[in-house]
Amino acid sequence: MIAAATEKLSKASHIRSGIYRLLGLTLIQPPGEEVLNAWLEPNLINELRAFFSASCCDELEKGLKDKSRGGFKTLPYREIKLAYDAIFSVPVKGKCVIPYESVYREDHVIDGKPRKLLMGKSAQAVIAFIKQAGMETPTQAKELPDHIGMELLLMAALCAEERASRNEGDVDGADILLQHQVTFLNEHLIHWASDLAIEIGRASGR
User: Fold this and answer.
1) What gap in Å lies between CA 183 and CA 136, rounded to an integer?
2) Whole-prediction pTM value?
3) Please, how many CA atoms are within 13 Å of residue 150, restricted to the half-sphere of its CB?
4) CA distance 8 to 11
5) Are strands 65-66 and 71-72 parallel, antiparallel or unpaired?
6) What confidence score (pLDDT) does residue 1 get?
7) HEC states along 99-141?
């Protein structure tokens, strides 16, 4: 009974880690062939359904499937990169999406005018959390710690460490890592990720 419960928790943390990692790698830089192929894995949608709403997964599946062939699309890297740059790098109507927690959660006034600044208190809080949790800063890309990709990759690492602890029989250590995930979600991602997603949708014309 205990072994079955441990296996279930281990599997759940493995799936969460994979989802966070895929999302993080997709958003931290223009996704390469490996990341694009991961989106085309047939089992991906089923795994996502365990954590996301049916409507969200149905919309994603609809976007990935090629209606004319009934199979999954081949995602051309060049088009994906152009789309990524159009959202995050090339200003549209004077602005582009800036995927940093400090930009979404902090307001500054400089010379009497509102300003959005990078590397604010939110970024410092992420650095402090990483140190307190005994983790390391994700190394997949050179980015500020509160970039959405970095935060998602940190969650992926926490989930992976939780799984490793459970497989080694370290229940207390695994539970601490699970609590770290809850804390980071509640203190960081839950406060701005949905607003970022809405802005990305608008920038992509959805």
Assistant:
1) 17
2) 0.88
3) 22
4) 5
5) antiparallel
6) 54
7) CEHHHHHCCEEECCEEECCCCCHHHHHHHHHHHHCCCCCCCCC
